[in-house]
């Protein structure tokens, strides 16, 4: 059944330890061939000496790839040998389950189901939830934002923005948005933190910013990252929405080649999904005090800049906020989140929504990278959703409550 020590009948995800620049070249090369999918880092150009690389390799290419690794003295471990099984686990019982049970939030949901959920949630909580259409995707799917409000009416309330699902394959991200909305609605007037948050701020939640890509990960390719827009002069599909914002757009850390995972698009906000979010934030920039974008994986609390090695003027303040949040996550969930300015903590990358929002004037701007820490990568089993969401929720509350204090005197 097994031909040779490393061969497998399954697709695998390998963890490869790169230690030299020459090895980095080799792995960059491998990762752009053999039908592999780079899981971490996001793009071959982020692979340097001393990088741990996570690479999805289809079964029929495993022999070739592992031979190459061996030839160049690259050590690797098999991170996952059961990707098909994990994908099956993530999509099991989806449509048949009741849509209101508690376990609803401990499963992943199809796009159709999420649209249904948005509608149902607005109906069930008419006093607290308003749904707004902020635009539509490339394939004309609606982009709905839920506005959560507590019962204390105020004329010009401050606000928080949270978007999930910029990247299609990061399924824990939309799951978190659903989790967060449900938690907020259930615990308003029961949990002090959430009550204070909703009394001081409106919270805008965009559960799936990239619905076309998300749909595609359910039907065709679980590892898809970008949106699904077509390019005129290329057969490759999709723009990386987190490279399409107007923040040092398409400089180092993004690509102008439509076939790449970090393709920046034709021009800033060329993609309807990015444009819709940018338009909404531009028209709410005076009220929105806190911007939050949810991604996975890697467990990090990041803040601007990503698009430059420069420190933002309130770097120290932002650093304190993520440090405190990470400390709480460590204390309550015994989990280590990395934290810091993006360019130094993850990689230099332009065109991201958080940097753009910061430059717009939203000076509390963050990207969360949720679990997994590498064991399952994008294929985090449903049984681990609750832990991933609870710790992110704790970090979110910690930061939001601080921002509420800090912006108190302002309108
Ligand atoms: C990238 C950028 Cl460009 C940003 N501004 N903030 C965070 C990131 C990291 C995510 C990405 O888009 O690569 C991680 Se999936
Ligand atoms: Zn992402
Ligand atoms: Zn990520």
From TrEMBL:
Write down the superkingdom of origin.
Eukaryota
Q: Which GO terms describe its cellular component?
A: extracellular space
Tell me the keywords, alphabetical order.
Carboxypeptidase, Disulfide bond, Hydrolase, Metal-binding, Metalloprotease, Protease, Signal, Zinc
Keyword Protein biosynthesis, does the record have it? no
- Kindly identify the residues recorded as the active site: 369 (proton donor/acceptor)
Q: Which InterPro entries match?
A: CPB2 (IPR033849), M14A-like_propep (IPR036990), M14A_act_pep (IPR003146), Peptidase_M14 (IPR000834)
- MF term (GO), any: zinc ion binding
One GO BP annotation of this record: proteolysis
Keyword Metal-binding among UniProt keywords: yes
Q: Where is the Peptidase M14 domain?
A: 107-403
Cofactor(s) this protein cannot do without: Zn(2+)
* Stated family: Belongs to the peptidase M14 family.
Its protein name is: Carboxypeptidase B2 (plasma)
Species name: Oncorhynchus kisutch (Coho salmon)
Q: The organism's lineage?
A: Eukaryota, Metazoa, Chordata, Craniata, Vertebrata
């Amino acid at each position: 059944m097994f031909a040779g020590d490393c061969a497998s009948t399954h697709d695998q995800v390998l963890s490869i330890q790169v230690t030299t620049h020459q090895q980095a070249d080799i792995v960059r090369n491998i990762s752009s061939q053999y039908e592999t999918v780079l899981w971490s880092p996001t793009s071959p150009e982020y692979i340097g000496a001393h990088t741990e690389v996570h690479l999805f390799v289809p079964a029929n290419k495993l022999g070739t790839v592992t031979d190459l690794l061996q030839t160049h003295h690259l050590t690797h471990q098999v991170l996952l040998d059961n990707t098909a099984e994990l994908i099956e686990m993530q999509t099991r019982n989806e449509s048949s389950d009741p849509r209101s049970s508690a376990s609803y939030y401990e499963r992943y949901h199809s796009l159709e189901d999420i649209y249904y959920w948005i509608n149902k949630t607005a109906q069930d909580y008419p006093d607290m939830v308003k749904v707004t259409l902020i635009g539509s995707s490339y394939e004309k799917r609606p982009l709905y934002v839920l506005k959560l409000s507590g019962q204390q009416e105020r004329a010009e309330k401050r606000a928080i923005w949270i978007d999930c699902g910029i990247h299609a394959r990061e399924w824990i991200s939309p799951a978190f948005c659903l989790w967060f909305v449900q938690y907020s609605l259930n615990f308003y007037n029961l949990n002090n933190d959430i009550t204070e948050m909703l009394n001081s701020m409106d919270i805008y939640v965009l559960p799936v910013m990239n619905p076309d890509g998300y749909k595609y990960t359910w039907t065709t390719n679980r590892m898809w990252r970008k949106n699904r827009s077509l390019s005129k002069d290329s057969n490759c599909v999709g723009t990386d929405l987190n490279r399409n914002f107007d923040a040092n757009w398409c400089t180092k850390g993004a690509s102008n080649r439509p076939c790449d995972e970090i393709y920046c698009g034709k021009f800033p906000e060329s993609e309807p999904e990015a444009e819709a979010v940018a338009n909404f934030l531009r028209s709410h920039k005076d009220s929105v005090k806190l911007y939050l974008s949810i991604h996975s994986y890697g467990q990090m609390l990041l803040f601007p800049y990503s698009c430059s090695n420069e420190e933002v003027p309130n770097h120290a303040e932002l650093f304190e906020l993520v440090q405190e949040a990470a400390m709480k996550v460590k204390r309550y969930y015994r989990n280590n989140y990395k934290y810091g300015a993006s360019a130094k903590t993850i990689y230099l990358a332009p065109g991201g929504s958080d940097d753009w929002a910061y430059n717009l004037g939203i000076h509390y701007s963050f990207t969360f990278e949720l679990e997994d820490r590498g064991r399952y990568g994008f294929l985090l089993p449903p049984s681990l959703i609750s832990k991933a969401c609870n710790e992110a929720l704790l970090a979110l509350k910690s930061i939001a409550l601080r921002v509420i204090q800090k912006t108190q005197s302002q309108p």
